[in-house]
């Protein structure tokens, strides 16, 4: 079997199968737990899994840029996540994976995109997006701490936060960005899985912080000042993850670059003062 | 309880809309990165962003006309998308012609297919055309119109189903009712159905734009381009993927 472009990187820091084996149960437990802070924060492994799937799929060259695959994943993911929140989270995950598989199968069958293992990659991508969006949407919209086994009772309440307040669309973009950005920013000759996934920690921290801010706004809108603590907790945890990601990326970049030098403050040239 | 017949019919309507979006996408004059340097015909952006820009304009019009009859919504959404695309192409041409001093030219045909002008001689050696010539312009308008129609059909289906279930609480739905006007509903009642329908249509735009974009690999001139012959493959893929998507959407809306 001949793979035409860009031979895949020889070794990876973490085996993709291990990421999937951690991400699926952890994120699914987060969604099932029904506690918004846990659901939102446990979207982290799913986003990292998605970023890793983007990394594998986009390393072959897509012809339309990396962001397109993130938007595709988030588009499948947002609908299957809504199915999951309305019926039961496992159904949403299964539907997302099935849609991704059908997409991968037919795109591969009609030779639209010539990527080996496209079916598996597309399935992983859609499943990861669906898990991440379920967690983040639950973090924004769910009231109370009852486990989310059958979502039919709480879905109409969640629809108010997601659609009437309009928080579904920004969180859809935030998830899309947090999945495609890591590979998009670090692609190049010396791209390395470890560094790309560290950027994914960074971007998922941003998405979680955003979810917390949306929850603050939603609770203020419906005058639920009592449960504000949890929204603040999501923001704090998100900021911690985000800051950890930033410092971790900076540390790795400093270690792997040829040299890091301080260029000094640029001199003032002409102008006022 | 969900009526399986309604679910399948709604999914089929959404799948047809997906095929329309795919056909519309392939007609747009997509230039990609080379067009930003005026070394290829078309607009200097990718498929997705172009389709999103024109499609969202159509969705905005569809949402504003929510209580009108179906054909008015569909036609107006298509026209708004075509207007948006025309404005973008016009401004791109103004920038290329008056700003950079480059004449719009086609590389794949000797003569412009619409005006029969001899445009090949204006192509700079080593490039594949510049700007948006007349044939590309008309092509892009038609493409944006078809894509806008596809997007508004999705919008209409999801919006009407969600309104019937969530706002009116109907048990029996006739599928043809989604094309009839909505009476006796205040605007504040339909905020959730409209937002859901717009989110779904946006997702559908991205999925179908991506499948088509992967096939045309970045740059396409118009219906005379050899890549246009691959349209049936993309259309079949779009139909199947959108059918699954339509089932999921109907599960949410119903």
From TrEMBL, chain A:
InterPro entries: THM_MeTrfase_su_C. The chain crosses the membrane at residues 20-48, 60-83, 89-108, 120-140, 160-180, 201-222, 228-247. One of its GO terms (biological process) is one-carbon metabolic process. GO terms for molecular function: tetrahydromethanopterin S-methyltransferase activity. The keyword Translocase applies. Belongs to the MtrC family. This is Tetrahydromethanopterin S-methyltransferase subunit C. It comes from Thermoproteota archaeon. The lineage of its organism: Archaea, Thermoproteota. The gene is mtrC.
């Amino acid at each position: 079997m001949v793979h035409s472009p860009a031979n895949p990187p020889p070794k990876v820091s973490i085996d993709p199968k291990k990421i999937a084996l951690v991400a699926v149960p952890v994120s699914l437990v987060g969604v099932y737990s029904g506690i918004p802070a846990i659901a939102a924060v446990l979207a982290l492994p799913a986003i990292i899994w998605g970023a890793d799937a983007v990394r594998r799929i986009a390393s072959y060259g897509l012809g339309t840029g990396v962001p397109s695959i993130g938007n595709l994943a988030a588009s499948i993911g947002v609908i299957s996540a809504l199915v999951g929140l309305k019926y039961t989270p496992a159904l949403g995950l299964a539907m997302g994976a099935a849609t991704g598989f059908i997409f991968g199968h037919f795109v591969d069958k009609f030779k639209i995109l010539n990527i080996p293992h496209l079916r598996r990659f597309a399935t992983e991508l859609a499943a990861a997006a669906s898990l991440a969006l379920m967690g983040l949407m639950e973090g924004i919209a769910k009231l109370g701490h009852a486990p989310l086994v059958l979502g039919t009772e709480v879905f109409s309440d969640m629809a108010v936060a997601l659609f009437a307040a309009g928080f579904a669309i920004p969180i859809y973009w935030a998830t899309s960005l947090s999945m495609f950005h890591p590979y998009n920013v670090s692609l190049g000759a010396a791209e390395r899985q470890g560094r790309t996934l560290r950027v994914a920690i960074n971007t998922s921290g941003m998405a979680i912080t955003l979810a917390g801010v949306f929850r603050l706004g939603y609770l203020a809108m419906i005058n639920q000042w009592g449960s504000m603590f949890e929204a603040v907790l999501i923001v704090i945890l998100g900021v911690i993850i985000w800051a950890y990601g930033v410092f971790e990326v900076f540390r790795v970049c400093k270690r792997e670059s040829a040299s890091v030098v301080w260029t000094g403050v640029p001199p003032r040239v002409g102008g006022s003062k | 309880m969900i009526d399986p017949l309604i679910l399948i019919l709604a999914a089929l309507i959404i799948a047809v809309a997906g095929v329309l979006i795919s056909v519309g996408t392939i007609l747009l004059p997509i230039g990609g990165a080379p067009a930003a340097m005026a070394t290829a015909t078309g607009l200097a952006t990718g498929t997705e962003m172009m389709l999103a820009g024109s499609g969202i304009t159509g969705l905005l019009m569809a949402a504003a006309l929510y209580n009108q009859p179906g054909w008015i919504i569909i036609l107006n959404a298509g026209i708004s998308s075509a207007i948006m695309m025309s404005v973008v192409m016009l401004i791109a041409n103004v920038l290329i012609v008056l700003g950079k001093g480059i004449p719009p030219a086609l590389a794949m045909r000797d003569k412009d297919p619409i005006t029969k002008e001899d445009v090949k001689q204006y192509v700079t050696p080593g490039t594949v055309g510049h700007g948006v010539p007349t044939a590309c312009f008309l092509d892009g308008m038609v493409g944006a119109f078809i894509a806008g129609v596809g997007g508004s059909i999705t919008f209409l289906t999801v919006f009407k189903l969600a309104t019937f279930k969530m706002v009116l609480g109907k048990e029996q739905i006739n599928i043809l009712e989604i094309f009839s006007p909505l009476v006796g509903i205040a605007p504040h009642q339909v905020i959730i159905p409209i937002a859901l329908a717009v989110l779904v249509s946006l997702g559908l735009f991205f999925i179908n734009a991506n499948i088509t974009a992967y096939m045309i690999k970045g740059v396409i001139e118009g219906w005379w381009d050899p890549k246009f012959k691959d349209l049936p493959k993309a259309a079949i893929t779009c139909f199947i993927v959108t059918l699954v998507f339509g089932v999921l959407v109907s599960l949410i809306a119903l």
